[in-house]
Amino acid sequence: MAAQSSNEPVMSRKRKRDGSNGETEEGERLGKIPRCTVGLKNPAPFADELEPADKKPYQRVTMEEAKKGTPLHRPVRVYADGIFDVFHSGHARALMQAKRLFPNSHLIVGVCSDELTHKYKGFTVMNEDERYDAVRHCRYVDEVVRNAPWTLSPEFLAKHRIDFVAHDDIPYSSAGSDDVYKHIKEAGMFAPTQRTEGISTSDIITRIVRDYDVYVRRNLQRGYTAKELNVSFINEKKYHLQERVDKVKRKVRDVEEKSKEFVQKVEEKSIDLIQKWEEKSREFIGNFLQMFGPEGALKHMLKEGKGRMLQAISPRQSPNSSPSRDERSPSPTFRLPFFSKTSPPPSPPHPSGARGYLISEDDDEDDDEEEEEEDDN
């Protein structure tokens, strides 16, 4: 329960005077800021901006008392120092471990100045003000000590009322010492933390150096001058030429990708057209067979038409016995309006209304008989 309550914010810290519009006024620091342990709304204050601690002599807590949990008004004051150049997740994880060492803790982070860092470790990417500001915006930090010493002296520990010093357990050789935390470990004030493998400031700088040309070309494209990047005139032209070549490569790659997409679309459409053509061809072949096939509709139509034609042009069958003269049907009559043997009086009108003589086959036979009789006489 104590560990859970220690992670909850007790009160928010306030280091700048509120203006009339609700915003804090930059650049003004009026008076000292009350001490507090945890706050997640504002940046961590600097140690020299805080009100002085109680005048009572500071009595350190033991490791057992710290692990058991101290009263809320008496947090365990843990100190962690470093350079914190190019602040990254490895730094944040180390500070998180230092904050969680004890149920009720107050984390003080010391950041070394540029002078000390350049003297003992080397040149930094970020200046000291940038490194101070990066650390104080980490959520696990309760207080920041600017211009922290390289080696912790008893006076410094007493001034800041430090109970324990948190750092990874690997011996840190610097400033002519095999381990600058050796006297802290001997005093029983050392609380070890674990390093985060795979990330460090040196690793990040190594990546930048390894990909130097890429970053230089990128910054030149963004508008930085060669002078700002410390690039010679020849290298500047080389980088511009490389950038143009890369643009051409990207365009060629884009054209290839677009052509592949076009070919793929054409293939898909051709497959669809082939499938549709096959479907239509099957339908056409089926209709053709229904019409012109061996048992198609056209064959039945031709058979039916042929039968009707034969029936129309074939003569009627004659009867077995010839009919008698009386039974014969009258021969067809026809009219000769301008031809006759004599000029008999006009015959009465035919019932059919036709004028002239009606000559039939019977009349011809009578005329022949009369001519034969005359010849005999």
Question: How would you characterize the overall build of this protein?
Answer:
This protein has 377 residues and is α/β, with parallel strands linked by helices. The protein contains 12 helices and 7 strands. The protein has a 5-stranded parallel β-sheet. A two-stranded antiparallel sheet has the order 6-7. Strand 4, helix 7 and strand 5 form a beta-alpha-beta unit. Helix 9 packs across helix 10 (233-292). It is elongated and about 160 Å long. The model is unreliable at 1-28, 338-342 and 350-361 (pLDDT under 50).
Please state the overall shape, judged from the principal axes of the Cα atoms. Answer: elongated
Structural class: alpha/beta
Note the run of SSEs as H and E.
Answer: HHEHEHHEHEHEHHHHEEH
Q: How would a crystallographer describe the biggest sheet?
A: 5 strands, parallel
Q: Radius of gyration from the CA trace?
A: 61 Å
Tell me the fraction of residues in β-strands, as a range: 5-15%
The overall pLDDT, averaged over residues, is 78
Query: Helix proportion of residues, in percent?
Result: 40-55%
